[in-house]
Amino acid sequence: MRLTQQRLICFSLPFALACGALPRTATAATPSTTVEAAKWGPWRPASDRKRANFDAGFSNLELGGYMEFEQACKRDTGLPEKQIEYRFRLSRLIDQIGTGTVETGCWFKGKILHRYSSPAIRPIDASVDCLRVISPQGGGLNVRSDAGVNNSLVGVVGNGRSVKPTYHPASIIERGGRYWVAIAAPIAGWVSNGRPGGVGNMRICSK
C-alpha cells in the first residue's frame, strides 16, 4: 500500500491520536534537490543512529506505521530483514529548536526505495518548554491565529523574549514555504521559524 506524504512535519501525541496514523512511506526515489537539502541533513547508515543523539518513536501509533514500512521494504527488495540496508536523516529543525523529524529509508540498487518519517527530539531537550526569539530582522515575531501569513495577527513577541510550545514534541507545520510552530505563551497562536534552510527565528532557551 502506498501512503501519501503529509505536510505535517511534527505533531503532538494528542493530535496524532485524534487523526490516526500518519506514516509517510514513499516509493518515489528522486535525487535530493536544493530545497530538500535545505530541509534535511545527509543520509546516514543505520549504525550511526546512536551517535546522532536523538530520540524518536513516542507511541504505539508510530510503531505500527514503522512496521508497515519494514514490510514494504522486504516486499519490494525481495531481501530478508537482516540483509536490507537502512539509512536515516534528520531535519535541520532539530538543531534549531530541539524538535524535528527523522526519516528512515531502505536503500536498494542505488536509491531510497521507501521512507518513513516520525517526530524526533534531542534527548537533552526532553523537557524543553522554552524557545528564545532571535529574529534576524530584529523586530520580533508576529503571532498568528493559525499557521500562515494571511491569518489574523493576535500579537507580537519581541526579540530576546521566550515562547512556550503548545505541545511536546512541538507541533510544526510547513505552510507557504515557512515552518510554523504552535505556541501557548505568552500569546496562544502560531509563529514562523522562517524558511527551510534559513537561520531560523528561535532557539532553545538553554543555548
TrEMBL record:
Keywords: Signal. Residues 1-28 form the signal peptide. PROSITE patterns: PROKAR_LIPOPROTEIN (PS51257). It comes from the Bacteria. This is SH3 domain-containing protein. It comes from Romeriopsis navalis LEGE 11480.
